[in-house]
């Protein structure tokens, strides 16, 4: 879970999210909301993401601001759950 959070939040390409699905949702103003263990147990989900699934949440009143922040300053808006997992990864990682 921590590694997945880091991949989605911390791994970048030219400053933007490396994952294309994350990049799509963040460009559109979403919040990286929740990472679900075994959220996709289909054969494809297990093979592609070890069954993990992420939820992106759109708060309509904030989408324009979130999108502008992501596109302008490359800031990813994320929930406390995702940020806690990122923090745990950073504390335990040797990267």
Q: Tell me the number of helical segments per DSSP (H or I, 4 or more residues long).
A: 5
Strand content: 15-25%
Terminal Cα span: 16 Å
Strand order of the largest sheet: 1-2
Helical content band:
40-55%
At a glance:
This protein is an alpha+beta fold and 95 residues long. It has helices spanning 2-10, 20-27, 43-49, 63-73, 80-92, and strands at residues 12-13, 16-17, 31-36, 53-57.
Characterization of the model:
The strands form two sheets. The chain has a two-stranded antiparallel ribbon. A two-stranded antiparallel ribbon has the order 3-4. Helices cover 51% and strands 16% of the residues. The two termini are 16 Å apart. The chain is of the alpha+beta class. The protein has one domain (1-91). Helix 1 crosses helix 5.
Question: Tags for this entry?
Answer:
51% helix; globular; two-stranded antiparallel sheet; malonyl-CoA decarboxylase activity; alpha+beta; 5 helices; Malonyl_CoA_deC_C_sf; 95 residues
Give the topology, please.
Elements (H helix, E strand, L loop, with lengths): L1 H9 L1 E2 L2 E2 L2 H8 L3 E6 L6 H7 L3 E5 L5 H11 L6 H13 L3
Antiparallel strand pairs: 1-2, 3-4
């Amino acid at each position: 879970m921590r590694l997945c959070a880091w991949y989605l939040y911390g791994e970048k390409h030219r400053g933007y999210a490396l994952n294309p699905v994350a990049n799509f949702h963040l460009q559109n103003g979403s919040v990286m909301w929740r990472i679900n263990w075994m959220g996709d147990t289909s054969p494809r989900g297990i093979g592609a993401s070890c069954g993990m699934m992420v939820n992106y949440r759109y708060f309509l009143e904030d989408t324009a601001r979130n999108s502008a922040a992501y596109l302008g300053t490359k800031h990813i808006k994320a929930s406390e759950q995702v940020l806690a997992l990122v923090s745990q990864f950073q504390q335990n990682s040797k990267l």
